[in-house]
Amino acid sequence: MSRSAGPVNTIVKVLLSLMYGLPLLWILLTSFKSSADVFATDSTFVFRPVVTAYVEALDGALLDALQQSVVIAVGTTALTLAIAIPAGYGLARTRGWAVSVGLGLLIVLQMLPQTANVIPLFQIFGDWGLLDSTLGVVVADSALLVPFAVILMRPFFRAVPPQLEEAAAIDGASVLRSFFSVVLPVARNGVATTGTLVFLLAWGEFLYAVNFFLSPGTYPLSALLAQQVSAFGINWPGLMALAVLSSVPVLLVYSLTYRLLRDGLTVGAVK
What we know:
The chain is 75% helix and 1% strand. The chain is mainly alpha-helical. The protein has a single domain, classed as MetI-like fold, CATH 1.10.3720. Strands 1-2 form a two-stranded antiparallel sheet. Helix 1 (2-31) packs across helix 12. The chain is globular and about 75 Å long. This is Carbohydrate ABC transporter membrane protein 2 (CUT1 family). It is a multi-pass membrane protein. InterPro entries: BP-dep_ABC_trans_perm (IPR050901), MetI-like (IPR000515), MetI-like_sf (IPR035906).
């Protein structure tokens, strides 16, 4: 089995490396090129590197957009976990047809396209006074990601033996005390995995931001990147420099939580 799978694995790894690696290499190289070298055939890999694009990108607009992205990602992660943790625990400890119905509804909600929610949410947020506010985008992103987070959290809570809660109850612990002191520490790997994935998804928020923020000056990083494309042309080095700079926080979070993601997604896949 291993002998026949070896070459196949190698070919798949090479193809995936080329498919994902070449665009990233092109982005990185273009960010260090001048505008004249971007599409010059003799400057594809050999060119005089410049940092003009990075110097121009590091201005007040980038810092404002970075702060907005951080607030949206952190706020969405906190609100999503606050809803998904008790919901996932409830679905893990409940038996019967209600669980199947609940999981089916969550899967349907997760499959709804994000574009289908824009117009209804725009009208609702207009009545609630949440348009052009960061809170509105955080609420919209949380509503979008809660079904995904609940489905992901449920297997981690199912992996916690009920006998631990029964032992805590015998010792006099209340339901809340058993949950926070026994269940949640055991399932902390799942909470960290879910929180990391929600943070990474919220970091790339774009559609809700460009529709619910009425002032372009309050856009997050993803919308700031889109603003670099205009009818007068595209500043490719500047666009690629912004792409590299906006990816640095994501790479840091991914590097710090890689082990949690690997172990957590493996547990969730087999439960």
